[in-house]
Design brief:
Layout: E1 2-9, E2 20-26, E3 34-35, H1 40-47, E4 62-63, H2 65-79, E5 87-91, E6 97-103, H3 107-126, H4 132-146, H5 150-161, E7 166-168, E8 174-177, E9 184-187, E10 190-191, H6 196-203, H7 205-214, E11 222-225, H8 228-238, E12 242-246, E13 256-259, H9 262-273, E14 279-283, E15 288-295, E16 298-306, E17 309-311, H10 318-326, E18 331-332, E19 339-340, H11 346-354, E20 368-370, E21 382-385, H12 392-405, E22 409-416, E23 429-435, H13 440-443, H14 453-461, E24 472-476, H15 481-492, E25 499-503, E26 506-509, E27 512-515, H16 522-530, E28 536-540, H17 543-549, E29 556-561, H18 578-585, H19 587-590, E30 592-601, H20 605-608, E31 619-622, H21 629-636, E32 641-645, E33 648-653, E34 656-661, H22 674-689, H23 694-702, E35 716-720, E36 723-728, H24 733-744, E37 751-755, H25 763-773, E38 779-783, H26 795-803, E39 812-816, H27 819-828, E40 835-839, H28 843-856
Parallel strand pairs: 18-19, 24-28, 24-29, 25-28, 29-30, 30-31, 31-32, 36-40, 37-38, 37-40, 38-39
Antiparallel strand pairs: 1-2, 2-6, 3-4, 5-6, 7-8, 8-9, 9-10, 11-14, 12-13, 12-14, 15-16, 15-22, 16-21, 17-20, 22-23, 25-26, 26-27, 32-33, 33-34, 35-36
Helix pairs in contact: 1-3, 2-3, 3-4, 5-14, 15-22, 15-23, 24-25, 25-26, 27-28
């Protein structure tokens, strides 16, 4: 077995809505017929008993090794605790070659699972050992490293419940929620609205105390110290016991509390110095340690934190008791578990010494022994939810503390005997204010119920009913995609100040191109959705991007499919038929929102059949002929349709008809260019689905000219010495048919065409292009493409020449090396009344060359 290509499908894709790893797997003939229930199957299950049952593919009870790889990769992830359920193995048209698809929750984990699954298959084949526990432990460790921590994960989960899209901006905890101008961002439990100044104040514990004291909030006395001797002097001024902690810090690092002796103070000073050179000494407040969580000026959770402790049994040492407590599966080494393992370090030893004990002491049965003076969860402490017990005055003090520092999400540390009464009545106070507080103690407290703090944070980011989404239109098809995308973006620009657009000729934000080249894939789409100015997005969604990576969005508001034809890279990536291509292209229809609409070519049977794939059921068909069976039936049911009637473009629904003369739509040349009429109908359907007012649609159509600025390489017309020159990027047989029909409607004394062929098309597809053109043009200038895409020199020209065999009209054929020379050859022969169609390869450069010739006259 050989795995030749692995792809990460990071969005909805050909196979499912899930993120998945896709692999192309080559199996030998013997590996295509492995015993499911004997020999191999028994060896496999002996090594991985939890693997799902193998599904034999025939009457002989055999399975291909690729299918085993699929189930192993899925099963290993599931056993490691990953929430994955989907997998699939599909044979290709090539014998022994399969496509294996396995869902993943974290990409790196999915890739490792596929690698380990190969090892498992090999071990079962060769009857060699496979260490299952080691494999699962590797997956668990990687998953813990890769996945969001509990704090950030709870916020992301809350976003999913509300239908708010999100994506990780880094491998850490920085996340973008929503799209474009509606987006918000967080870093762990800190939101984008929180200023750097507020964060700096929270880090400066002395400044924080001053601010809180100025607002009447009780805080412990203390000051900054500069040496161990100064610390002891400060302790004398304040009065023992005291607390020593770094001036700038978090998570309780370097904090030592309840210091009563000089020896303890010296050790505490040294511990604090490991984290900061600036150190504070404060009065120790006796009582319980509480953490109050304030979100958006509201108290949403509170917990009592208790130091890590063990209870003596009269038999085991403290060290042994700690080891036993740490065996609790809820305790881990990071923040992914509800509890953290108790640390046995110098601070723990010092804490024991203060109780007259050591690590090897055997405490009496029932004696509680503390391992820390502070109660941070990160050092092994526990948390008990007390949200329902917080006195209103205590809650008010916490909210005031958050406001004084300026934090939108704030962890307020409070020490007092009881949370049930005001701080002043019991000599309690606020000892610290934390930016980006950990949420673990509130989500999964050691005791008591968890609180929905992720939902509270999400409510602060987005008001009720808001989803952070902007209108998203996805456009796919064989021909007309780019023009339709540009036109939809232009229509939306009549209402929105900034429209983002991706296409085969670049990325545009508010009409300004920010990237060049073929940008019809998911990477460019993500860039548009990430741009903070974008109020609506129109995304050309090409075949290649869907295959490589899936969609860049979870769902769209409008999916437009222009047409499906044979010319679009058939034969590549196991897409061999028009039906295969349709299954791929319909992915955007399958991922329409529940309130969204599909805009489909009703005259194309394959496209019209995609209607059943829409989860919303809202379909707008378009076709020039309203009497087409699909259109007629749809309109008779009172549903939306766009068609042409007596020179007018008509948008109809029920008894309502909105009409617009095609003479007012420059792109169509008074309705003479059939394929542009189709593009206009598709764009109108999309704008209508998004609720654009008809007056704005008319305004947009009237102002969209068919020139190289608005629709570069899409039937751009030039006048040259009385002749008509048309530049177009058509590059497949369907496009040739449409172009022949369009230029046939234009008067011409003599017709010529300049053409090359893309090397990554099938041989018959290349021949078919000149076969069509040879019956419609008098002169054909063939040139060799700048990039042959895997073909040898002269191979494409030979195929184009073969297509001209039997041509009924062409009288003159030239073969040229170089696109610009070919254009010059055709334009040099033009006379008044002639027409020349230039099928450009290097779109921008070729059009610039034509424009230069036109200027020269």
């Amino acid at each position: 077995m050989e795995v030749q290509r692995i792809r990460a499908l990071r969005g909805p894709n050909l196979w499912s809505h899930h993120t998945a790893i896709e692999a192309v797997v080559h199996c030998t003939p013997a590996e295509c017929e492995l015993s499911a229930r004997q020999n191999f199957g028994l060896r496999l299950r002996a090594r991985f008993p939890q693997i799902l049952p193998l599904r034999p593919t025939g009457h002989d009870e055999t399975v291909p090794l690729a299918h085993v790889l699929e189930l192993a990769a899925l099963g290993l992830q599931a056993q490691a605790g990953c929430p994955v359920t989907f997998s699939r193995t599909t044979p290709t048209i090539e014998p022994g070659v399969y496509q294996v698809v396995v869902e993943y929750s974290e990409e790196a984990v999915g890739r490792l699972a596929l690698e380990l699954a190969q090892d498992l298959c090999r071990a079962a084949l060769e009857d060699t050992p496979f260490n299952l526990e080691q494999a699962l432990e590797r997956l668990r460790e990687l998953d813990e490293d890769e996945r969001l921590g509990p704090s950030t994960g709870s916020i992301a989960d809350a976003a999913m419940v509300r239908g708010i899209p999100y994506r990780r901006m880094t491998t850490g905890s920085m996340i973008q929620f929503g799209w474009g101008s509606k987006q918000r961002r967080i870093q762990a439990a800190e939101i984008d609205a929180t200023s750097a100044i507020s964060e700096s104040i929270a880090q400066d514990k002395e400044l924080t105390k001053k601010l809180l004291a100025s607002a009447g909030v009780p805080v412990p006395l203390g000051r900054e110290i500069h040496s161990a001797d100064d610390a002891w002097a400060a302790a004398g001024e304040i009065g023992l016991p005291v607390v020593i902690k770094p001036k700038n810090g978090n998570q309780g690092k370097g904090v030592t509390v309840n210091i009563t002796t000089r020896e303890q103070l010296l050790k505490a000073f040294a511990a604090a110095q490991e984290f900061d050179d600036e150190i504070l000494v404060e009065r120790f407040l006796p009582g319980n340690d509480y953490r109050l969580l304030v979100v958006g000026n509201k108290l949403v959770a509170a917990a009592r934190r208790d130091p890590p402790t063990v209870v003596g049994d009269g038999e085991h040492t403290i060290r042994q008791l700690v080891e036993e407590v740490n065996r609790d599966p809820r305790r881990g080494t990071g923040h992914s578990t509800s509890l953290t393992k108790i640390r046995f370090d110098d601070i723990a030893t010092a804490c024991l010494a203060g109780q007259g004990l050591g690590p090897d002491s055997v405490p009496a049965k029932g004696r509680r022994v503390a391992l820390r003076h502070n109660a941070n969860l990160s050092t092994g402490g526990t948390a008990t939810d007390v949200t329902d017990d917080v006195h209103p005055d205590v809650a008010y003090r916490a909210i005031i503390a958050a406001k004084m520092v300026g934090l939108d999400i704030c962890g307020v540390d409070m020490v007092c005997d009881s949370i049930l009464k005001p701080l002043e009545e019991q000599g309690g106070g606020i000892v610290e204010v934390n930016a980006a507080p950990g949420l673990r103690m509130h989500l999964s407290p050691s005791y008591g119920k968890g609180r929905p703090v992720g939902e509270a944070i999400m409510s602060t980011l987005f008001a009720e009913g808001e989803t952070g989404r902007i209108p998203v239109v996805a456009v796919t098809g064989t021909n007309g995609k780019t023009t339709t995308v540009r036109l939809i973006a232009h229509l939306l620009g009549q209402r929105h100040a900034c429209v983002g657009m991706t296409s085969t000729d670049g990325v545009y934000i508010g009409g300004e191109r920010i990237d060049t080249g073929d940008c019809s894939g998911p990477k460019s789409a993500r860039n548009v959705l990430q741009h903070p100015d974008v109020e609506a997005a129109v995304l050309e969604t090409a075949r290649g991007g869907i295959l490589r990576e899936g969609l860049a969005f979870d769902r769209c508001d409008v999916a437009v499919v222009t047409n499906i034809g044979e010319g679009d890279h058939l034969g590549l990536n196991f897409i061999t038929t028009v039906e295969d291509l349709a299954v791929l292209k319909r992915v955007i229809v399958q991922n329409i929102s529940e309130q969204g609409s599909a805009v489909l070519n009703g005259a194309d049977p394959i496209v019209a059949a995609m209607a059943v794939q829409s989860r919303s059921g809202k379909i707008t068909y378009f076709a020039a002929d309203r009497h087409h069976p699909v259109m007629a039936t749809h309109l008779a049911q009172g549903k939306r349709g766009v068609y042409v009637d007596q020179g007018d473009l008509v948008a109809a629904e029920g008894g309502v008809q909105l009409r617009l003369p095609l003479a007012e739509v420059p792109l169509t040349l008074n309705g003479t260019i059939g394929f542009q009429v189709e593009n206009v109908m598709a764009a109108v359907g999309a704008g209508w689905a998004l609720g654009l007012d008809w007056s704005l649609i008319r305004q947009g159509l009237a102002s969209f000219d068919n020139d190289a600025n608005n629709a570069q390489g899409r039937f751009n017309l030039f006048r040259y010495k009385g002749a008509t020159v048309i530049a177009d990027y058509g590059h497949n047989p369907d496009a040739m048919q449409a172009l022949v029909q369009a230029v046939g409607a234009l008067p011409a004394r003599r017709r010529s065409v300049v053409i090359s062929g893309a090397g990554d098309r099938r041989d018959e597809g290349i021949r078919e292009q000149t076969r069509i053109l040879g019956d419609a043009f008098d002169q054909i200038v063939l040139f060799e493409d700048a990039c042959q895409r895997g073909r040898s020199d002269g191979e494409v020209l030979a195929l184009l020449r073969e297509g001209l065999a039997g041509a009924t009209r062409v009288r003159e054929v030239h073969e040229i090396r170089g696109e610009f020379v070919a254009i010059d050859t055709a334009m040099d022969t033009l006379a008044e009344g002639d027409l020349c169609l230039v099928l450009v390869d290097q779109v921008e450069e070729a059009i610039a060359h034509i424009q230069a010739r036109v200027r020269q006259g």
